[in-house]
C-alpha cells in the first residue's frame, strides 16, 4: 500500500497569519492533534502539534528558568523556549523542517519516517509542494484493521510450501537447511531445529502468514547450547 491509499484528504490546515489560539481552537473543534501551516498558495511551510502547545504562558506551564539549564543550553536555546511559550503568531512556534512524503510513497517508508524521527504524522505533498493529504499512525492502524486477510486465498499444498520456503530463505536467521516443512490440506507441519525460542516463533509467524494456510503445527526443537 501507498500513502495515497490511507491518507486523510483534504487536510485541516491553518494559514501563516493564524494565531496560536486560532490553532488551539481548531485542534479542539476538529479533534485533531496537529495542524499543518500553509502559505497563501497552499504550500506547506510548517506544522504545529499538541507538543508545541503544552508549555504556554496562558496556563502557567512554561518551562521555568534555572541557572543550570542556562549553563547547559545557553542563551539561544533559552530564548527559543521563551518564544515557544509566549509568542502569539503560529509561525513563531511551528516546526519548519517538516518530514513529508508524496502520494506514491510506500507505507513501509512512512512507517520508517515515524520510527526514525519520533513523529506521529507525515504531511503528503505533490511535486509542486502543495499540501494534499496527511498520514498518521492511526491511519496505518486503520488500514491494518480493514485489510482483507490474505489467508482467505486458496492455494495448493505445493504452492503453499513453495511460498513458505521462499519467504524463509529471505530471512538470514531461518537456516532452512535445518528445517523440514510439510503441507497437507492447508495444514503446515514444521520439523527440525531452531537456534532459539525467538527464531522458533519467527519461523512459526512466517508460516501462519502464508496465503492459504489453515493451521500450523510446530514440532521444532530448540538447539541445545553448549558451554565449553
TrEMBL record:
Domain BON: 156-224
Domain of life: Bacteria
Pfam families: BON, CBS
Gene3D superfamilies in alphabetical order: 3.30.1340.30, CBS-domain
Record's keyword terms, sorted: CBS domain
First and last residue of the signal peptide: none
Keyword field contains Signal: no
Domain CBS residues, every copy: 7-63, 94-153
SMART domains: CBS
Name of protein: CBS domain containing membrane protein
Species in which this protein is naturally found: Nitrobacter hamburgensis (strain DSM 10229 / NCIMB 13809 / X14)
Amino acid at each position: 500500500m501507498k500513502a495515497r491509499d490511507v491518507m486523510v484528504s483534504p487536510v485541516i490546515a491553518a494559514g501563516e497569519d493564524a494565531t496560536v489560539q486560532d490553532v488551539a481552537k481548531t485542534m479542539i473543534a476538529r479533534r485533531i492533534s496537529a495542524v499543518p501551516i500553509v502559505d497563501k498558495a497552499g504550500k506547506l511551510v510548517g506544522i504545529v502539534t499538541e507538543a508545541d502547545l503544552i508549555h504556554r504562558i496562558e496556563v502557567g506551564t512554561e518551562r521555568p528558568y534555572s541557572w543550570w539549564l542556562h549553563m547547559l543550553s545557553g542563551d539561544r536555546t533559552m530564548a527559543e523556549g521563551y518564544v515557544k511559550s509566549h509568542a502569539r503568531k503560529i509561525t513563531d512556534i511551528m516546526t519548519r523542517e517538516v518530514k513529508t512524503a508524496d502520494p506514491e510513497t510506500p507505507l513501509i517508508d512512512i512507517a520508517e519516517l515515524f520510527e526514525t524521527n519520533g513523529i506521529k504524522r507525515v504531511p503528503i505533498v505533490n511535486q509542486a509542494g502543495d499540501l494534499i493529504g496527511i498520514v498518521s499512525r492511526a491511519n496505518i492502524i486503520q488500514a491494518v484493521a480493514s485489510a482483507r486477510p490474505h489467508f482467505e486465498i486458496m492455494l495448493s499444498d505445493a504452492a503453499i510450501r513453495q511460498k513458505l520456503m521462499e519467504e524463509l530463505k529471505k530471512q538470514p536467521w531461518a537456516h532452512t537447511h535445518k528445517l523440514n516443512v510439510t503441507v497437507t490440506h492447508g495444514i503446515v507441519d514444521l520439523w527440525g531445529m531452531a537456534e532459539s525460542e525467538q527464531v522458533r516463533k519467527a519461523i512459526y509467524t512466517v508460516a501462519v502468514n502464508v496465503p492459504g494456510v489453515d493451521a500450523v503445527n510446530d514440532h521444532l526443537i530448540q538447539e541445545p547450547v553448549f558451554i565449553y
